[in-house]
Design brief:
The chain has 276 residues and is an all-alpha fold. It has one domain. It has 12 helices and no strands. The chain starts with 10 loop residues before the first helix and ends with a helix.
Length: 276
């Protein structure tokens, strides 16, 4: 296969490639998950221990020390505040894990570019599926926590995948874009790290969006994780249906970003072998 040959970049080509290489995507995702815990005593069990440890810290700090209360909660501090905070933090962690790895995806797999025939476009998808595994484990723990809190876990929690699907598409689109850009501009990885940290405090993770002033609200809504965090909390903590209009707009934007990122990746990959 000629690495300089043009690659199909249409939405149909994207769907076709993912379906054709679905077995490879799943195999690499399993390897990605297992590789993170290879050599450790507890192995994959760390995917359960890490969220539990975080929850314990949040419950102690905000419940016992700060006596914080989340807007809409019936009780002060403790489990209720930790559950609301953790719901937002898991969305942020998923986004941060995928985006922080994206600029180096092609660089760290340069042997796939130079020596073998390999569908490079699946690399961001592999990272996404590995991150989804950890997100699923953490949300199972969060669901159990909500059952022992003052929040009311209702049937609307089953609609969380409807919110996560466009979010996953958006993250994948950003990953394709950053993976391609990272090959030609090595500094992008250094730039992404502080941006990801800043995003943590500029997102409604440690506080609800309702406390943000109207003047800053449009800026917060431009944040790709804000809408998802707020909708997941509505579904899981308050038992309310999602904002269907907002979800439709977010889904259209996510589709545009996903296909745009894929298009850029496919068009720019012709030069990967020369740069690497």
């Amino acid at each position: 296969m000629n690495p300089h040959a043009p690659q199909p970049a249409s939405p149909l080509a994207l769907l076709r490639n993912l379906w054709r290489h679905r077995a490879l995507v799943l195999a690499l995702s399993r390897r990605e998950i297992a590789g993170r815990y290879r050599g450790s005593v507890f192995g994959v069990f760390w995917s359960f221990l890490n969220p539990i440890l975080m929850l314990s810290v949040f419950t102690f700090v905000f419940g016992e020390i700060f006596q914080a209360r989340w807007a809409g909660s019936q009780t002060t501090g403790g489990v209720d505040f930790a559950a609301a905070l953790f719901a937002g933090l898991l969305i942020y962690n998923f986004f941060a894990e995928c985006i922080s790895k994206a600029p180096s995806l092609v660089l760290t797999n340069s042997n796939y570019v130079k020596k073998v025939v390999f569908p490079l476009e699946i690399l961001p998808v592999v990272t996404l599926l590995a991150a989804l595994f950890h997100l699923l484990v953490a949300y199972l723990i969060l669901t159990a926590l909500i059952l022992f809190s003052g929040w009311q876990l209702g049937p609307t929690a089953l609609l969380v995948p409807l919110v996560m699907l466009p979010f996953a598409l958006l993250v994948t689109g950003f990953s394709w874009f950053l993976a391609a850009l990272g090959v030609y501009l090595r500094d992008i990885g250094q730039f992404i790290a502080p941006m990801i940290t800043a995003l943590l405090f500029l997102s409604p993770v440690f506080y609800p969006l309702s406390v943000v002033s109207d003047r800053l609200r449009p800026i917060y809504m431009a944040n790709p994780v804000t809408f998802v965090i707020e909708q997941v909390r509505q579904l899981m903590l308050h038992g309310r249906l999602p904002d269907w209009q907002g979800l439709a707009i977010y889904s259209l934007v996510a589709l545009a970003v996903a296909f745009g990122g894929f298009y850029l990746f496919q068009k720019s990959r012709r030069g990967f072998a020369d740069v690497l």
